[in-house]
Amino acid sequence: MRSAAAPTASALPRLAPDHDVTTVPDWSEVVEHFREGLIVCDPEGVVRHVSPVAERLVPEVVPGEVLAATGVTALAGDGPAEFTHHGRRLRLRPVPLSAARRCWYVEDVTESVSRADALLAERARSLFLAVVGEKLGNPLHPDRAAAAVARLAVPTLADVAVLVLAPRSGRARWWRAVRADDEAPAVDSGVLPAAALPAAIETGLAGTEPHALDWLVEQAAEAGWLPGLDVAGATARVVPLPGREAPAGVLLVARRAGRWYDEADVDLVRAFAARAGAALTTAMLYRDQAEVADTLQASLLPVEPAAASGVQWGTAYRPAQAGLRIGGDFYGSHRLADGGSVFFLGDVSGKGVEAAVFTGQLRQCLHALHRVEAQPGRLLKLLNDALLETTQANGQGRFATMVLGVTRPHRDGGLTLTMAGGGHLPPLVLRESGEVEVVPLSGMLIGVVPDPRIGETTVHLAPGETCLLYSDGVTEARGGWRGDEQFGADRLLNALSGCHRMPAPALAERVEQVTCDWLAHGDHDDIAVLALRASGPAGRASRHLHAVPEPRNAVRSRELPA
């Protein structure tokens, strides 16, 4: 082919009606330098002139022969055409001349078409990888990410795609996508023992890319991964998916006969595998971190009070940051050898994870110290000493407020509560008469000074009476019409009016509910509630039916013995 600077046939001047190209030697010399070939025929269709470029591109056309007899179908038409001839891409443009003569310009466009096709293919690959990056950037669950990888590989990369994740606990999970005509790829999954994985998959999991050999297809067929795909003539590739230290898995792509993997296809599969590996690694890392976070959060959540003779417990807990599920409020209880129980509710400084870790330390200290000291005041001072030692060692000035008490059951079903206060809100007692009493209990913060003043008091609960402990997240909840008014102690007392017959769980739930209603979904501090109800004789709570709707004309339900 001539250089791009060579003139084209369109530069040929228009011929006079009585001129013949074959009779003008100067035109022949000019035509030899055209980038396009030139073929001229007389009115009878006999070839009169063929330029050197045309001779090279269409050697079947010979001067003196009828053009229609050359066998080149495109030359028999009347309009422009583009066709493949002898492995080259040719473009044909017919031009009518005077006296019914015709002229054809023939140009070799193989390289320009190849460049255009290569540019379109590269744009398609870039668009495909961009879509892959967008789709794989969302799933943070390994199963959903794996299913998305298999689905995206079909049909661009394969007729059948199988993703096998690295084995865990001796088992490997796989996902398969199969091409469906005019439909989204069908995706299914399964599990295989690690020992049953095909050799090609094991090689890929080791970080090596097997060669594209027939046995890859055979192994995939034996594993049952190529449904509806004729093994004869099919081709496959296995590409590792990069992970953190080892491949996150492998991708098996297979095509039916006639769709071979060339070098560009293999490069695209590898680029896809790199993005898939990054997405799967991220999803697995998120899963591992979520499992660790769930385990740690479970260990830091308030533990439900242990069942004790003569006590019915009720609890409610709502952290300030609902997504964490943990906070700085805590409660719990421990059984004593003499049949009583140590119970506590407190609030530490701060919020979130750091506060939750501090509550975990407090609960661990109480779990150990109650075995050596069961008197509430002395136990609270031991806890204060332990916290001072811990915070000084860590260089963190943290403190807590707390109510800590001991229950002693009576034979008549009542309870004696001996409580010590460490700067916390005073407990409330709901009497059988319906009256709500504020227990006069005060004291200093825990974890601030070496010898804090600890308040102590004793409360007697008759059967059916309840003692309520709560954190400042209840009274300091801000809401109301303007959203900045505190709930306050008075509203809490009013909310408890008439609730003296409620079981302890229902009472704790009511306190949480009225607080949240006041907040109206606004921000709030941690909320914790602990209710202790003297459950009556035999150590079991009485059942109350007053909250159950009564049928018409029925006698009002009364409190029934358990």
Automatic annotation (TrEMBL):
Signal peptide location: none
Location of the PPM-type phosphatase domain: 311-534
SUPFAM superfamilies xrefs: GAF domain-like, PP2C-like
A family per Pfam: SpoIIE
PANTHER family with a match to the protein in the record: STAGE II SPORULATION PROTEIN E, STAGE II SPORULATION PROTEIN E-RELATED
Key word Ribosomal protein present: no
Gene Ontology terms for molecular function: phosphatase activity
Stated name of the protein: Serine phosphatase RsbU, regulator of sigma subunit
Keywords, sorted A to Z: Hydrolase
Organism: Micromonospora humi
Cited Gene3D superfamilies: 3.30.450.40, PPM-type phosphatase domain
Recorded superkingdom: Bacteria
InterPro entries: Bact_Sigma-Reg (IPR052016), GAF-like_dom_sf (IPR029016), PPM-type-like_dom_sf (IPR036457), PPM-type_phosphatase-like_dom (IPR001932)
